[in-house]
Amino acid sequence: MGFSSSDAETLTVDGRPFVHPKTHPIETGRYLLQTNQIESLKETIVRWVDNRVPGGIVYGRPRLGKTRAIKYLMHVLPAEFDQRIPVYSLKCRQYKVINENVFFEDILKDINHAYPSSGKASQKRERLTKYLKENVESSGQHRLVFFLDDAQRLADIQYGWLMDINNELDSLGISLTVILVGQKELIHQRSAFQQAKKFQLIGRFMIDDYRFSGVKNVDDAQTCLAGYDQYSDYPEGSGWSFTRYFLPDAFARGFRLEDCAADLFDCFCSARTEAGLFQKAEIPMQYFTLTVDYVLRRYGRNGEDLNQINRLQWNNAIKNSGYIKAEVNQGVEE
């Protein structure tokens, strides 16, 4: 939604910018904030791409925020290089029957090709190579990046098809870096390839690995919360961060969510202990953001309109996020 000075002057509620009901990013959950984990991952991916590493693994528990991290990196990664390097995000789907025709059609769809469905598998493969070649040439680069989300779903034969793409691009002088993003099964898959002596697949797609983690300490929590305070204007360019919009009076008095980092992280740890979870805390971003969203919606201007947020509100928000139930039900890995 666009925002102009006239909107601020004529369409305001209690002095705040006008936002249609239920459309604020905190209401929809559609927003991206930088975290320590994403910044560390970005540095790793930049190094891989810069060194023309053909492939690597990014793995971690479910709901840590890996998919959101991909979206964030899709936005910022091109700017890390002198020219805009083509970056694509591909979704690995679960198939009852693995079919080469469908495989290449899905890739064409994911890269927004105008004609993903026409032709046989060989024609789709050729169309894909041509499309990638054209985009690489227009970027002025000789490389591109694939992020494959939910890559633990890939079967051996699909790795072979990916290797074919890699070979075809290599023959054109184009370096492809494939980032496999998924769960720990990817590490097990690499071990299986090693036992089967499929070193060509390991060398193409699994040379290096990176373990993606959740919120592990107060500093991680503070970095995330600072995003709500400082780096989240909505409407864009309005100067109204998420915290300011939902807690305007408290914000005007100097309240910032990042100052709650120690209390919030301690509340997560206490909730874990009460539930009999004694492993070191690693909070998935899904539940961290759900907790913050709940506090802003329930206790902010559109809800109870509190003047301050304390441990009582954080504890209630953690409970309503579903975090503890999820940890107890699935068990905690690593």
Automatic annotation (TrEMBL):
Keyword annotations: ATP-binding, Nucleotide-binding
Lineage: Bacteria, Bacillati, Bacillota, Bacilli, Bacillales
Positions in coiled-coil regions: none
InterPro entries: AAA_22, P-loop_NTPase
Domain of life per record: Bacteria
Domain ORC1/DEAH AAA+ ATPase: 56-187
Name of protein: ATP-binding protein
Listed GO MF terms: ATP binding; ATP hydrolysis activity
